[in-house]
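Render this sequence as a predicted structure.
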Amino acid sequence: MGEMVQFPFAGGTTGGYLSEPKNGSGPGVVVIQEWWGLVDHIKDVCDRFAAEGFVALAPDLYHGKSAKSPDEAGKLMMAMRIDEAERDLGAAVDYLSTLDSTASKKAGVVGFCMGGALALYTATKNPKVGACVVFYGGHPKVKPDLPNLNAPVLGLYAEKDGFVTPELARDLERQLKDLGKQIEVKIYKGADHAFFNDTRPEVYNAEAATDAWQRTVEFLRQHLSV
């Protein structure tokens, strides 16, 4: 459904996976990878967004590399420079705005695990972001500038998550509400970290994933003006 594309940033180009609606145009969404890299699961998520009428772009933050084991993934995640990731994500937002198929004034950002942390980070750094969805987002090096957040946030978390715990989710919710920001948090009972990833049967939770997807699509449609 989609294709690999190259898009510019100041001083060079970077790559990603782009999936567009079959008919016409729609809101633009940047999809941000888990620590595994730009793998087939993330491309499939882009295709699913396109089927819902969005223009979805997943930048390749590891620049051609991906991981099959948690050890490899952890090394790639920690080796990733946050400033370069911010550059690539900003370039992705800008590139979406140049496409004829993108109808929204601002872009949404949706991220999973590492990508969830980067989605919130991007929303605090980039005024062109109009909505932010965080799936169990966490990264030890990513510190979002919460007072600078302008986009509404949807946070989707898991009760049994030992990495991004419900306590961390509620703490983020408190911080943002204290700052007068807009955030909605859902914690799925019985679900574990990465419950949305249907390529990982040991953690995939179909009921939670289905509900989270519906919430995500509705949230993005609500907040991304066309």
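Summary. The chain has a mean pLDDT of 96. Residues 3-223 form a domain with the Rossmann fold fold (CATH 3.40.50.1820).
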